[in-house]
Amino acid sequence: MKTLKDVISLKFKTSESEGVIFHGEGQQGDYITLELKKAKLVLNLNLGSNQLGSIFGHTSVTTGSLLDDHHWHSIIIERHGRNINLTLDRHMQHFRTNGEFDYLDLDYEITFGGMPFSGKPSSNSRKNFKGCMESINYNGNNITDLARRKKLEPSNVGNLSFSCVEPHTVPVFFNATSYLEVPGRPSQDLFSVSLLFRTWNPNGLLLFSHFSDDLGNVEIDINEGKVSVHINVSQVKKNRIDISS
């Protein structure tokens, strides 16, 4: 396909911070890749570069954050030549691609939810998308409906289920005055804890526990946007360990 205009739209939700949403490339060096990186949306686009290196078409735009919250997010990409409108959840960003070419020349398949292994280093390091998509529309074609009715030719529809499975995690909301207290295990000599958290606040206490027999305590907190672990041990010379990340 050699197109001057493109309109691509879809909705997605995921709890993963990395994953290729869709990808297409051509033999002339053209490509378009939409992916999640560190829970942000990244659009990589190249309408063509020349071998001499005087025309460099690669363009990369990042938008959004915290998109791995398992809520639905909508994307619309509208391209007319080098002019691009990228809309994420009704927030539109306008930009122009680098280079001198106006047409997107894709010789191979367009893949949704991942990219085929091409032998290039870029395809090796990218994760496939894990989550749900709906209302996938590519230049007027309802991809979701065509895939469900097996009307895409040629196509490789592998391990798709046309339903969205909800995660089994149960979140807990704290309002800065609430807390959750659970019983300790005094006979254990191992302390282990894991959790996922999300907050807009730069400071706050995540966890505190006394060790039994007055041996000290452990504290995990957020301080100026960094997570810190403080371990106080009362019966040794070096009685405090501080770890910050």
Strand element count: 17
- The end-to-end span amounts to 47 Å
Task: Provide the structure class.
Answer: mainly beta
* Shape assignment: elongated
What is the CATH C-level name of the largest domain? Mainly Beta
State Rg. 24 Å
Count of helix runs: 2
Strand order of the largest sheet: 9-8-7-2-12-13
Low-confidence stretches: none
Mean model confidence by pLDDT: 87
Number of domains: 2
Q: Roughly what fraction of the amino acids lie in strands?
A: 35-45%
Order of helices and strands: EEEEEEEEEEEHEEHEEEE
CATH-derived topology of the largest domain: Jelly Rolls
Corresponding CATH architecture of the largest domain:
Sandwich
| Largest sheet properties | 6 strands, antiparallel
Tell me the helix content: under 10%
Task: Label this structure with key terms.
245 residues; mainly beta; six-stranded antiparallel β-sheet; five-stranded antiparallel β-sheet; 17 strands
